[in-house]
Amino acid sequence: MANSEQQTSYQSSQRYKPIQHRKAVYQTNWQIKRRINRLFMILFALIGAHTLAMVWLEELSLFNALWLTLTTLTTVGYGDLSAATPAGKIATIGLLYITGITLLTLIVSDYIDYRFFKRELIRTGKWRWNMINHILIINSPRNHTTEYYIRLVSQIRAHALYRSTPIQILTDQFPGGLPTELAELGVVHYHGSSDNPGDLRAVNVHAAKHIVILARDENSAISDSATFDVLHRLMEHKLADKAIVECVRDENRERLKRLGAQAIIRPVRSYPEILVRAILAPGSEKILEDLFSHEQDHPTRYDVKISGLTWAEIVCALIQAGLGTAMAYVDEDKEVICHPKHDERIDAHALIVLVKADLEPAETEIQEAIRHYRQRKQNWDRQKQALEREADIEH
Prior knowledge:
This protein is an alpha/beta fold. It is built from 13 helices and 12 strands. A 6-stranded parallel beta sheet has the order 3-2-1-4-5-6, sandwiched between helices. A 4-stranded antiparallel beta sheet has the order 7-12-9-10.
């Protein structure tokens, strides 16, 4: 009975006894580099020791001794020089055949491991690139992320000044690596979060040329809070003036503006050109934003027929009348001609005019402005002809 209880107690203790797991052995990036550096130092010491041994034991010159050491270590073995004395042969066996070649093999093996490790870090977005003068994009759109990035980066790359500019994305997406079509555009990513100061340091935010902060969700005003937090961090390091930020709710624009953002735009996912313009031509994004809304300046079509005037004269006529700015016209084939040459004679069937929402002119006002300009132009022409005739009479 006692033996049975002891056996049961032993089985129970074995069942619940903690299992001693072997510790996982791995090397980080810096550990591999440190090991390679240490191996190189030992190898150089062996090369120096064998070179001196050949000078002393084989009575070779310093150059010939080094030549013999390197050809032996690299297994080239030209055969023009070799150790002849027993002591020299023993030194070569111990220092090079056994120790030196083994060290060289370990260095090559560790270097290959380092390359594979680096490639894996790059693929998973954990490699620190130490970029300077780069475009840093923080956060990712919630939907159609890859398609948006491809369109955005493609439009940036279309500009000659930014064709080869490094572009890095700080995002918690793409844990398995960037899509091939995006990587082919010269984009890299760091897998992290914009609310982590360490991740911001990892992408060299202080050395970026432009910083773009995207709204995490273009349909939720909560995204503005996250944007505000990131911009505030940049402001603390005097980097806010490099930032182009997206703002979902217009009421939050003033708060972001007080932090010193370079530009504040609405998140228009179907038209990344607004963001691109903010990078390439700061200030022009405001014009494009107004065109997308009906709140301030917006384009309006006026079905008025105009002929016999140049495009410059039409633009002057509307501006002098305070009605707006002519942007394009519609010809007789119903084609919209944008920004024609200033001296081109226009045969228009309609005008596209940029007007203010609170001062939108009527079609009759446009016609009246053109008619008044024609009259003034005729008066100018008559005065000019009269002056020319007087000059001819005097001569």
